[in-house]
């Protein structure tokens, strides 16, 4: 259940930004979630609904979720592949000398606010 | 009514925590306090390993331990019996400690005379890896009964740790545990990881681990 901790972090960040920019209500927050970020969007949504009710400026705030496809790069054959399908092992040459290029991030993209 | 505007943020959700963690690390460095974040699954032997670690180092450093759990204070009592200062932190259902909670824990522990602070994080191989606590170094324990394949299943945890202790090596013959394969699995995720096989119960390997920790604490203090 680290989704709850993540939700608290998002709310803290948004409240800070709201203070800096004198925002009074935040209508939505768009969060980009990598496929291999270990964050489960459905849990994030549940924690979100519970946690925003305790805030002042985000009570009705919607959480919009945008997935990010995970891609791994193989150092031996210099090709990329979908991480979710093949994990650490390159499907092109069988090498394990691979690293994740994109897909483990959890990022606040933008907010809609008044 | 004011117009709704879209504000671009482009910020990792961990960035607020990461900033707090950097600040805490800098504060600890300035005070000469080394903070070790110890992580593992439940039941891998964190508390037993800590009691042996304290016994090995208590004559050299003042040690303080924070036990983080969802509930109960059994671990803090076990640590208190070693003579080291200890407190129990409850996470209120959360599966990990973040930098803010770690700072509060250190304040409650009272670190004015502490040189080596140890955070025994919540038993969990997933969530604590996501949240930087502000620790000087991260260590984890993988115990033999859990299996040599765990670095493959929980890569993030293995990739963020400076040290991996492989505990309960005394029962290796009963679990078909391939130590060399396990080391390869860890190094594939984290080529810089220091791997130390130990048995917290018999004390095997604890000296090597204590040597590593002693060198790190000393370097941290001298490099103020």
Summarize this, please?
The complex is a heterodimer of chains A (114) and B (224). Chain A has 114 residues and is α+β, with helices and mostly antiparallel strands. Helices cover 31% and strands 32% of the residues of chain A.
What do you see in this structure?
- The complex is a heterodimer of chains A (114) and B (224).
- Helices cover 31% and strands 32% of the residues of chain A.
- In chain A, a hairpin with a 5-residue loop joins strand 3 and strand 4.
- The model of chain A has no long low-confidence stretch (mean pLDDT 93).
- Chain B starts with a strand and ends with a helix.
- Chain B has a seven-stranded parallel beta sheet with strand order 4-3-5-2-6-7-8, with helices on both faces.
- At the A-B interface, helix 1 and strand 6 of A face strand 1 and helix 1 of B.
- Strand 6 of chain A pairs antiparallel with strand 1 of chain B, so a sheet runs across the interface.
Beta fraction of chain A:
25-35%
Return the structural class of chain A.
Answer: alpha+beta
**Main sheet attributes: strand count, strand direction, barrel closure of chain A:** 3 strands, mixed
Q: State the end-to-end CA separation of chain A.
A: 31 Å
The neighbouring-strand order within the major sheet of chain A is 2-1-6
Keywords:
heterodimer; A: 114 residues; alpha+beta; three-stranded mixed β-sheet; three-stranded antiparallel β-sheet; 6 strands; B: 224 residues; alpha/beta; seven-stranded parallel β-sheet; 8 helices; 8 strands
Question: How are the elements arranged and paired?
Answer:
The complex is a heterodimer of chains A (114) and B (224).
Chain A lengths: L1 H19 L5 E9 L6 H12 L9 E7 L2 E4 L5 E3 H4 L11 E5 L3 E8 L1
Parallel strand pairs in A: 1-2
Antiparallel strand pairs in A: 1-6, 3-4, 3-5
Chain B lengths: L4 E8 L2 H17 L2 E7 L5 H12 L5 E7 L4 H7 L4 E6 L8 H11 L6 E5 L16 E7 L6 H4 L1 H6 L2 E5 L11 H11 L4 E4 L8 H17 L2
Parallel strand pairs in B: 2-5, 2-6, 3-4, 3-5, 6-7, 7-8
């Amino acid at each position: 259940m680290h989704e709850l901790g993540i939700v608290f972090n998002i709310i803290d960040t948004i409240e800070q930004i709201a203070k800096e920019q004198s925002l009074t209500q935040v209508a939505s927050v768009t969060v980009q979630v990598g496929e291999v970020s270990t964050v489960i969007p459905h849990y994030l949504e549940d924690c979100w609904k519970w946690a925003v009710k305790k805030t002042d400026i985000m009570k009705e705030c919607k959480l919009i979720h945008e997935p990010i496809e995970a891609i791994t790069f193989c150092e031996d054959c210099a090709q990329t592949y979908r991480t979710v399908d093949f994990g650490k092992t390159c499907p092109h040459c069988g090498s394990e000398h691979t690293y994740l290029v994109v897909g483990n991030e959890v990022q606040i993209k933008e907010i809609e606010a008044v | 009514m004011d117009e709704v505007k879209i504000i671009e943020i482009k910020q990792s959700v961990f960035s607020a925590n990461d900033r707090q963690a950097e600040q805490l690390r800098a504060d600890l460095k300035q005070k000469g306090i080394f903070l070790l974040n110890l992580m593992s699954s439940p039941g891998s032997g964190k508390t037993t390993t800590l009691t042996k670690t304290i016994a090995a180092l208590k004559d050299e450093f003042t040690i303080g331990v924070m036990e983080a759990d969802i509930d109960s204070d059994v671990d803090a009592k076990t640590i208190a019996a070693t003579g080291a200062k200890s407190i129990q932190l409850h996470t209120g259902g959360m599966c990990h400690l973040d930098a803010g909670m770690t700072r509060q824990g250190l304040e409650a522990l009272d670190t004015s005379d502490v040189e080596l602070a140890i955070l025994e994080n919540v038993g969990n191989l997933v969530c604590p890896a996501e949240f930087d606590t502000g620790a000087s170094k991260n260590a984890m324990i993988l115990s033999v009964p859990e299996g040599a394949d765990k670095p493959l299943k929980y890569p993030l945890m293995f990739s963020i740790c400076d040290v991996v202790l492989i505990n309960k090596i005394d029962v290796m013959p009963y679990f078909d545990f391939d130590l060399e394969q396990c080391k390869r699995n860890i190094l594939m995720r984290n080529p810089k990881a220091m791997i130390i096989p130990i048995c917290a119960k018999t004390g095997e390997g604890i000296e090597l681990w204590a040597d590593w920790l002693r060198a790190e604490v000393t370097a941290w203090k001298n490099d103020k």
